């Protein structure tokens, strides 16, 4: 397997070109909701791309299409040079490994009947060395080794998001998509999970697609940003450029309305209190 997760950060550009390329993507739901209308987007290999926009702008629809969990009404998606939008599910095994998603609501995405070790190793299938890999992943996300034997309800919201991250990393993906992954967390825990995510993305040289309605968080995490409104990308560029000199009126409105952006831009040091490492009993 050739995974950038196994190679040094400097090797990431070897496959050159964007790792995901989206062209003229449209998705119309039954009932005539035009969730996406003509989206074109390059995800830079090894980059941290933010996708911002208010609720209902089509961000999650785009994410589901990128992961081939849903099919476009029109347009194409290319992953590392291979068209994926027109492939049958059984031919998408490589995408299921190489692109992973962390969702907002861990309770919705973690099966409550499964033990954490089985949740984390599920994307691996029946491979040798599963137990060792689970132990490695628990350590990577700073969960105690005995967490594997417990069920998700034993953990706090932040810890459940650590479990989701561990599961996403299990198959050594190249691309990690976080769809509002920290939005449900309170401010201290949010910062810890963000720190963890960015540390792991750097350590494994992953490409990050960070989806959020929260412009402040995107500025802290991402190097590039795409702004969505009503199913379209109205503006894309380096975060500092877009935030400091927005070209589109909608971007200016979003920035003006962002309560957390001003906090994110202040020079206050980040919170230092630490989330308890032990599961709550
Ligand atoms: N499965 C679906 N069926 C019908 N409409 C949907 C479905 N999923 C999302 N929508 C609609 O598509 C639009 C975009 O939704 P979504 O992609 O979830 O936006 P966001 O993630 O930015 O909040 C919204 O109007 C939403 O109501
Ligand atoms: Mg969404």
Automatic annotation (TrEMBL):
Q: Where is the ABC transporter domain?
A: 20-255
Q: Which Pfam families match?
A: ABC_tran
Q: Which GO terms describe its biological process?
A: transmembrane transport
Kindly give the Gene3D superfamilies that the UniProt entry links to this protein: P-loop containing nucleotide triphosphate hydrolases (3.40.50.300)
Keyword annotations from UniProtKB, A to Z: ATP-binding, Nucleotide-binding, Transport
Q: What InterPro entries does UniProt report for this protein, alphabetically?
A: AAA+_ATPase, ABC_transp_ATP-bind, ABC_transporter-like_ATP-bd, ABC_transporter-like_CS, P-loop_NTPase
The record's GO molecular-function terms, alphabetically, read: ATP binding; ATP hydrolysis activity
> Which family does the record assign?
Belongs to the ABC transporter superfamily.
Report the protein name in the record: Peptide/nickel transport system ATP-binding protein
From which source organism is this entry? Prauserella isguenensis
């Amino acid at each position: 397997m050739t995974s950038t997760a196994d190679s040094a950060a400097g090797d990431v550009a070897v496959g050159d070109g964007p790792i995901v390329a989206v062209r003229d993507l449209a998705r119309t739901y039954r009932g005539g909701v035009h969730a996406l209308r003509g989206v074109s987007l390059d995800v830079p290999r090894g980059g941290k791309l933010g996708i911002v926009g208010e609720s209902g702008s089509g961000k999650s629809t785009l994410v589901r299409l990128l992961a081939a969990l849903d099919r476009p009404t029109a347009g194409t998606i290319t992953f590392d040079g291979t068209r994926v939008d027109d492939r049958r599910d059984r031919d998408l095994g490589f995408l299921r490994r190489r692109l992973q998603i962390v969702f907002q609501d861990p309770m919705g995405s973690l099966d409550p009947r499964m033990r954490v070790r089985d949740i984390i190793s599920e994307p691996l299938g029946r491979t040798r060395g599963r137990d060792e890999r689970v132990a490695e992943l628990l350590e990577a996300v700073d969960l105690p080794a005995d967490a594997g034997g417990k069920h998700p309800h034993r953990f706090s919201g932040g810890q459940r998001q650590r479990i989701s991250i561990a599961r996403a990393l299990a198959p050594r993906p190249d691309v990690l998509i976080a769809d509002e992954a920290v939005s449900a967390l309170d401010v201290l825990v949010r910062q810890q999970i963000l720190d963890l995510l960015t540390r792991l993305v750097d350590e494994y040289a992953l490409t990050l697609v960070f989806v959020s309605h929260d412009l402040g968080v995107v500025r802290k995490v991402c190097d590039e940003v795409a702004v969505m409104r009503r199913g379209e990308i109205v503006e894309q560029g380096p975060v500092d450029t877009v935030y400091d000199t927005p070209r589109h009126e909608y971007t200016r409105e979003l920035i003006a309305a962002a309560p957390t952006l001003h906090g994110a831009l202040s020079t206050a040091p980040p919170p230092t209190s630490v989330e308890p490492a032990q599961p709550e009993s």
